[in-house]
Every structure is written in structure tokens, then in C-alpha cells.
Amino acid sequence: MFVRKKKNSSGSTSVQIIQKVQGKYSVIKTLGSSKEEEKIDHLFSQAQEAIPRLFNQITLFDDPPYLPRVDELSNDDIRIIGPELVFGKIFNHIGFGQIPDQLFKDLVISRITHPGSKLQLSEYLRENNRQEISADNIYYFLDKLNSKYKHQVEDISFAYTRKLLNGKIGIVFYDMTTIYFESSQPDELRMTGFSKDGKHQHPQIFLGLLVGRNGYPIGYDIFEGNIYEGHTLIPILEKFEKRFKFEKPIVVADAGLLSTENISTLTKRGYTFILGARIKNEANTIKKQIEKISFTDVHITKLHKPDKTILYVSYSSSRAKKDKANRERGLKRLEKSLKAGRLTKSNINNRGYNKYLKMEGELSIQIDYTKFESDCKWDGLKGYITNTRLKGKQVIDNYNNLWKIEKAFRISKTDLKIRPIYHRLKERIEAHICISFVSYVLFKDLERILLQTSNISINKAIKAINKMYEIIVPLPGDRFRSIKLKNNETQKQIIDLIDANY
């Protein structure tokens, strides 16, 4: 049983509940028709709500039930129900059920369980007898999604995160990533720039994500692809502080957001912060102090800077081994390129290990081994700038939680397949990001429950959820009965957890 929108010759659209029995479709109920899109959406929602009642009416008098033989059933009589049973319940529990469009829910859940194109979503919905909706209708919905729901999405997400954090947002973590497009034509939003995905030739956008403790999402924003990422921190903080009226939290961000301008602005506006530091770029007076220190493993040194911030420097022997290995690997690549004659004057810059290149005369490019060897004194050292009153270990522990936002980006790029983006229109790009954000909220919440109470990984859970089925059994008189197939142990454990927590 599913909902169909049928175009009429008059130009109106009828909303009907359709039943498929033994390969044939029949109209169970027509909710009405209209030429107005909002009225059609309202009728569509009514139809979705009516389906469960019709299920009950149809199966109420099946005593004794007629059940066909197994070999009388076809693949058309089987549909996947796990995504709706699990993620549909999480979706409603968090509060996204306040958004009335069923299609929004379908787009969000399918981004987790069946990430792919909007055309694939149309096919998925049709194959599972849920609704008949074309890819064109999905794209039309995307055109208005961001303007209608983004504000509400952020309100719901923030309220839920604050609830999980017992009502207090004391610390926030901010980071950015790039999302590239499979298109060669840039515009005012999609621009080429430094790509964290290594796709420098592709147009891209920047995605900024703000989360609370444990990676619980607060909000996001997108920026043009050639922006300097340091210019995005203050606008996002101001935006969400104004929106949600929370007390100024400690702001944690990596070295990419470190700039004199950002530090000055954060200080003037009353924020406390923890930022990753590039100690090699510090003033000579600070670097000379660091060079005089005899570091031991897990050693933390506190230095006072002229701008009244504090620089903590820590040393780790395991980090030192990794830094040394990376430098040596970079040197070998340079030596190989130099020997092959692939290096030119344009390669002499401060990008990565190109900093070890130098010019001898006007034509000869050489490797500066002295500079390479002198860099060994920085192996194993990591800096953190703060204006908080936290101890060095507390500063470092809080900064190290940035990996959770990095994990959020990794989830979005791999599990939710947020990239590459194939959309061209700004409205659809924004809608794609909005859907992916809500999908991450659901993904994160299921992961939270699994980590607390089971040994099931999130990826294993999703595979199990996608294998929860029910059979639609045709009955005499154009009726049918739905029968859920028995869950295996993993599936049963997941359903028990969902029932207990939501």
C-alpha cells in the first residue's frame, strides 16, 4: 500500500492510496485533488496517516486468516521495514517529526541506509510499496526545503543536544571541511580553492560544523569555496549565540582557525578559547624559549605570550617518531622528483615539504638538507593557545576532543556519501547539506545508544536494519495482511534497544 500523486488532464493532481495485489494496482481511496502544491502536500500527509488505519480495517475480519503458500508469493510482496522501524522512531523522538513532510523524513533516512542519488531514492520508495513519487517531484521539493526547514532543523537539533548535555553548552568545537562537485563550472558559491579532499581542480564549498561535547551537533553553515577558513569562525559563533542565547562557551578549534584577528575578536567579545598552535610560526623569543627546554615524554610546558594568552607545549615520543617518519618520507619524495627532473622554480614554496627546496644560482634547484636536519628539534612537539584558566592537561584533553568533529566529517563523507555533490542550483546544494546534517544527527544518536548498551557497531547495525523485512500477503476480496519476518539476534537486540530508549 502506498500513496500516489496522479496528474489529471485538467491540470490538477489527485492524491490516492494504492494497493498492489498479485501484480495489479487498485485505488483504495482518493483523498482529493488540487492544483496548489501546498494543498497537494497536505493531502499527501493525510494519505500517509490514513494507511495504518486502512491496514487495521482490512485485517480486522480475517479470522480465520487466509494465507497463501510461500510459492505463491513474489518479490513484489516483500518490502524493507527496518529503516522506518529504527530511524523513523529516532527521527520522531529527537523532534524532527514536527516537520510535516513525509518526503523530508524519507530523504533523511535513505541518506543513512541507502545513500545515493535522488533517482535511486525514487526507485527505492517505489520498490518498497511506500509511495509513488518521481525524481522530478523530489527535486521540486529540494528547491524549497532549505528555506522552509533549515531554521527549524537547527532549533530541533540544538534543543536535543542541550538535553543530552543536561541543559548546558559549556564548550563547543568548530571545524571546517571542503565538499567538492563533479562539475568544472564554478559560480558565486562553488569555487576552486584549497581542497582538503585533494580535489583542487574541482569547484567546492566549505562546510563549517559546530558541535558540543561528545560530538553532539549544534549547527552548521556553508561558505563559498575560496574563502579563508579563519574568516568563518566568528560569524558562526555569533549566529548561534544570537539564535540560541546560550552563555559564551569555551571555543575549541584547530590551527587552521588560528589568526591574530580571530584571537583579538574572540577576546574582545568575551569568549574563552583553545586553539591549536603552529609553534614554528611563533615569534623568535618564544621559539628560543622552547628550544631551551629539555622535554621528556608527556611533558607539558607553559609559556606566557605578549598578547596575554598562554601557550602550552607538550611532547610525545610516539608523536616524535611519527613526525620524523613523515619528514623522511617527504624528503624521499622530493629526492625522487628532483632526480626525475620534475621540479621547477614554481615548486619552491612553503607548502608541505617543499619548504626544503632552494635555488642555487638562477637555474639549479636543490634540497636544503641543513634545514631538513634543523627541523628535527620540533619532532614530537605540539602547541595549544588559550586564554582559559584551565590546567595544561585539561587544555590538551579538551583540544583532543576535536577528533570527534573530524569523525563527524568522516561519517558524512563516507557513510552518508555527502560528496561529491552533483547538484548545480544553490537551493538544491543547501537542501542536500541540510538533509545530510539531519541524517548525521540520527546516525550519531543511534551510535550513542549502541555504545552505551551493546557491542554492535553502527555499520553492522545499519546492515542488519536494511535486512528487516515484512511480507504483504494478498487476501481474497482485494485485501491483504502484513507479516513481519522474524528478526535474527542482532536485529532483535537493536529493536529492543530502540524500544527501551525511544
Describe the 3D structure.
It is a single chain. The chain is an alpha+beta fold. The chain has three domains: 2-144 and 455-501, no CATH class; 146-290 and 386-449, 2-Layer Sandwich (Nucleotidyltransferase, domain 5); 320-378, no CATH class. It is 43% helix and 21% strand. It has helices spanning 37-59, 82-94, 102-113, 118-127, 135-164, 233-244, 260-268, 284-291, 317-339, 369-374, 392-400, 403-415, 426-453, 458-465, 489-501, and strands at 2-7, 13-21, 24-34, 78-80, 131-132, 171-180, 204-211, 217-224, 250-253, 272-277, 299-304, 310-315, 357-360, 364-367, 381-386, 469-475, 479-484. The strands form four sheets. An eight-stranded mixed sheet has the order 8-7-6-9-10-15-12-11, sandwiched between helices. Helix 2 packs across helix 3, helix 3 crosses helix 13 and helix 5 (135-164) packs across helix 13. The longest helix is centred in the first third of the chain and has 30 residues, at 135-164. The protein is elongated, with a radius of gyration of 28 Å.
